[in-house]
Amino acid sequence: MTAKLSDVARIAGVSVSTASRALSHPEMLRPATVKRVRLAARALGYAPNAAAVALTTGRYESLGLVLHSLTNPLYARFASSVQRHAQEHGYGLHIVDTVGVDDREVELCESLCRHQTGGIVSIASRLPEQQLRMLRERIPLVLVNRHVSGIPAVVVDVSTGIARMIDHLADLGHSHIVYVSGPIQTWSDERRRRRVRERIRLYDMRMELIGPTPPVFRSGIVAAERALSVGATAVLAYNSLIALGVMFQLAAAGARVPEDISVASGDDFETLGVSGPALTALRLPIDDAGALSVQLMLALLAGEKPPSKPLTIPVSLVPRQSTARAATASRVPH
Fold first, then answer.
1. Which of the pair, 47 or 42, is modelled with greater confidence?
2. Are 186 and 126 in contact (CB under 8 A)?
3. b/e per residue, 226-247, with b = 16+ CB within 10 A?
């Protein structure tokens, strides 16, 4: 038998109107009352009709998340963070995945707009600025790792982290680096490439640029072959999947990491610290990015004015065993 709101109210020991407010406008009640009603609703399996809630309160009960591949550990972690923080505030989450097909992004955003979604969080959007502005006019929108003037955003500052990674390699005496860039026409990749070039010029290094490339394992295999053919002393990969592909192919070719060539990654996940050798990487606070994106969305839904600039989250460099002094290079001074 389907549970009714009156059943929830009876179990929670409150009136039906109080139970309704606890589920639709929890900010109007004491936290203890809201908690009691939510526990009763969960125990009974009660779920209010989303359309009815939206009509009576003006609030939709779910948010949308647009990303490019749930098989990417970074996106999976971000999705988990957004879902957790959305649920803490009473929102469900619809996750849609372009599976790396850029043309699907518009279609998926349209679908979220049609299906009574309260707002959209989009990570690493590849849509043109004009399309994003048009989308913002239809539905509350928060961007992550993409900046468009007038649209609230959270930016994980990987470009500054990449500059620190070049500093790290320079300190180890590397003078010939292969940089494996990321997906074509992405805002984040363009920022990273610009910082890499600036740092390379600062240290008077040689650089081989490979890319744009899909941020997947097989891109690393191609990059490793190129690095060996040009005699590079280090490879810096856009992300950990590419870096692992690089290390796999270097090992297959008989090259030792880091004795013969160093490898580093532009992002990190837990198992990189236990791979052999453990991979030097940038640690990205993805959980914080998820929390901030939900906070921005909730502020938009509450009618608050968003920050005029992106909320920027710093990253940290985690040196591990995959980088060491270049075998045939002298230290490069700062």
1. 42
2. yes
3. ebbeeebbbbbbbbbbbbbbbb
pLDDT band at 203 (very low <50, low <70, confident <90, very high): very high
Q: What are phi and psi of 292, to 5 degrees?
A: -65, -40
**Is residue 31 left, alpha or beta, with left meaning phi > 0 and alpha meaning psi from -120 to 50?**
alpha
How far is the C-alpha of 73 from the C-alpha of 67, rounded, in Å? 12
Q: How many helices (H) and strands (E) are present in the chain, helices listed first?
A: 12, 12
Cβ(99)–Cβ(67) under 8 Å?
Answer: no
> How distant, in Å, are the alpha carbons of 53, 140, 176 from that of 208?
56, 41, 8
The DSSP annotation for 270-286 comes to GGGGGSSSPPEEEEP-H
- The strand pairing partners of 176, in sequence order, are 206
| Enclosing H/E stretch for 299 | helix 286-301
Domain residue ranges of the chain, discontinuous segments joined by +: 5-48, 62-156+285-314, 158-283
Are 261 and 232 in contact by the 8 Å Cβ rule? The answer is: yes
Q: Which CATH superfamily is domain 158-283 in?
A: Response regulator (3.40.50.2300)
- The reported pTM is 0.77
- Give the C-alpha separation, 169 to 280, whole Å: 11
Domain 62-156+285-314 in this protein, CATH class = alpha beta
Q: Where are the beta strands (DSSP E) in the chain?
A: 62-67, 92-97, 120-123, 141-144, 153-156, 176-180, 206-210, 234-237, 262-265, 280-283, 311-313, 316-318
Please tell me if the domain spanning 62-156+285-314 has the same topology as the one spanning 158-283: yes
pLDDT of residue 2: 66
How many whole angstroms separate alpha carbon 326 and alpha carbon 175? Answer: 8
| 49 pLDDT more than 80 | no
